[in-house]
Amino acid sequence: MTDQTENTVPENTEDQVPEIEQELDVYPLRDPSEDPRWALWVMWIWIGISLGLFLFFVVLFILGIWYD
Amino acid sequence: MLLAMAGNPFIQSPGGAKFAIGFLGLFHTSVASLAIGFAFIVTVLQIVGYMRKDNHYDRLAKRIQLWHVCIYNIGTINAIGLVFALSGLYPQFWTQIFTQFFWTIIIEEVLFFMLATTITLHYFFWDTMWGHKKMHIFLGSLLTPFFFLQFYIINGMGAYMLTPGFSESQVSQWGGTASITGWDLLAFYNPSFLMLTLHRTSANFAYGAFFVAGVCGLLLFLSKREKMRAWHERGGRISFNVAFSAFLTLPIVGFFYAWVLKYHAKTAYDNLMVGKGDVVAGGIDWWWTKHIIVAMMIGAGLIFSRNASRKEKEFKIPMAGVYAMTLVYFLFYLGMGMQMTWRFFWASLAAAVFGGMLCAHLLKRHEGSGRAVFVLMAILSFFTVLLGGYAREASRPRFVNQSGERQAGFNRIAPFDNLYAPPERAEAGLNIDMVLEKPDYVDQMPPRPGQAKIQPETVEDLVSFRCISCHTLERVYRYKGTDWDRVVGRMKAYGMRLSAEEQQQIVDYLNTTEFEDPTPPKYKGQ
Questions:
Q1: Is the pLDDT of residue B105 over 50?
Q2: CA neighbor of B43 nearest in space, from B150, B148, B131, B128
Q3: Per residue in B302-360, pLDDT tens?
Q4: Which helix (H) or strand (E) holds B276?
Q5: What digits encode the pLDDT tens for the residues A29-62?
Q6: Neighbours of B491 (CB within 10 A)
């Protein structure tokens, strides 16, 4: 490492604004079309499976009260 | 030898089997209880962030969800250790619990899979789904009902072990012969099931949110930047308010929980109230200790809320509600003082006053910041969860030897006395004071349409039907002892429904039959 590159490191790291602090200022909503389609598909499929299973189990427990 | 005891047929573990299970169980409780609180508060923070378009809340929610992914892994691995330990140290545990709860455990397993996957997807898709934020929040919100369902199942089993109620241990004709069903309605919906579920729900919301506030408090101590401190202070305060709101509902649920125990688990209730059995360990009554800590938390929470209501403009808990619920707490402790000793009441009152004074001091010392109070409440909340779990498990009547004494290392299979036996099963004089009377709802339970009644026609049928309601018939024909009267008496004390005549028939049959061929008695009634 040369002297020149060493000088590029700020001496006082407390002056650096942490990345997370910068993120706090904006609520980064964006246009839905910017979301990757594959991720959207995964989400839809998983929500579908989750809701289906959840309803199935709830129905099972309710029916179990009468048809046990 | 550490791992062997003379004459003891069980695997020995360092510190004793009870210690091993207690340690693993409490470790699991302290980690797994966080998960439910985390799921709830993540959704609350995400919704608040979305409504205000304020990323402070959303970023905190994301951070909590990362912890959630981590603790879910730790809790799962710990749970597997608990299952292994139970299988080795209490070999009869799963074979007995599966006869009534096999299908519920299978559903539980599917739910665990769904939860682990949903938590992971929710966290790792956080920054990918900013264009579909509502959908992302909805995915996270699914965690709470899933946790409820999972919780619902585990509480059915946990409550059953304290208040077996009137389970019938059924057999079915599936497969053309009598077999174990793996499900028992009356065992699952047992007397303390609802109250345990409600109590643990409020307690877990409180614990998870107090923990988040505590971590915000720690980060407040560590942060040097003003903006970060403001973020952690805000996160800590909203989490504290969610936690304390849940905490305030506990005495109402707790009162009815204690009421149910009084009538359905009298020995456990007495052990808690009077400080008997394993509730007292090392000379300390841990249930008292837990309540002293709870009293301290109500004092500290009251002062914190009063202080916050004067300063904060948003997310305040209405003070009228806080005062009202503090009064309920006071009455609860008054009632317990009347049941137990007044020393308990005065000690709790002193702890509440001390908690309030300490909170006022800490707020002043840290110039109005809640950081020290957040950390304090998180630590106290952790201890209440541990001690509450311990007291519930330790309050059950202990298994004893035939002369009525507890015997360390030798007490894992109960003899036939000093066990749960409701009055209507008391023909053999085994009535223990666990149940005062049969609750009304038992007769009001709906009939069982569609289930064919199988009638035992021979003594072999009787053995088959009655024994497999709790365990496989292998255990009958592999038993080499001759004390069948004692064994059947013990099974009856466990809760098997058997008339005196049937009992005699079974004992005679088992005494006179030799099972040389490892084939269990067959059902011959079809």
A1: yes
A2: B148
A3: 999 999 988 876 677 889 999 999 999 999 888 888 877 788 899 999 999 999 999 99
A4: none
A5: 999 999 999 999 999 999 999 999 999 988 887 7
A6: 19
DSSP three-state, residue A32? helix
User: Among B28, B64, B69, which Cα is nearest to B232's?
Assistant: B64
Angle at B504 between CA B502 and CA B507, to 5 degrees: 110
Cβ of B128 and A36 within 8 Å?
yes
| Residue-wise pLDDT tens digits, B354-381 | 999 999 999 999 998 999 999 999 999 9
Instruction: Identify the DSSP state of A2.
Output: -
Residue A30 and residue B131 in contact, taking contact as beta carbons nearer than 8 Å: yes
> What is the rounded CA–CA span in Å between residue B362 and residue A38?
51
Confidence of residue B483 (pLDDT cuts 50, 70, 90): confident
- Token pair, residue A7, equals 């000088």
8 Å CB contact of A57 and B107: yes
End-to-end Cα separation, chain B, in angstroms: 53
Residue in the block written with tokens 């066990």 = B419
List CB contacts of B1: < 8 A, sequence separation 6 or more.
none
Of chain A residues 15-44, which have a CB less than 8 A from chain B?
18, 20-21, 23-36, 39-40, 42-43
CA distances from B495 to B157, B429, B484, B509 (A): 16, 13, 17, 21
Q: Are strands B280-281 and B171-172 parallel, antiparallel or unpaired?
A: unpaired
Rg of chain A's alpha carbons, rounded to an integer? 26
Partners of residue B61 in chain A, C-beta under 8 Å: none
Q: Do A30 and B149 touch (CB under 8 A)?
A: no
For chain A, the first-to-last Cα distance in angstroms comes to 76
Distance from CA of B452 to the nearest CA of A (A): 11
Task: For B121, name the nearest residue in chain A, comparing CA atoms only.
Answer: A43
Burial class (CB in 10 A: 0-12, 13-18, 19+), B294: buried
Among the partner-chain residues B55, B185, B224, the one whose CB lies closest to the CB of A27 is B55
Q: Is the pLDDT of residue B173 over 70?
A: no
Rounded CA gap, B249 and B112, in Å?
A: 28
The residue-averaged pLDDT of B106-128 equals: 94
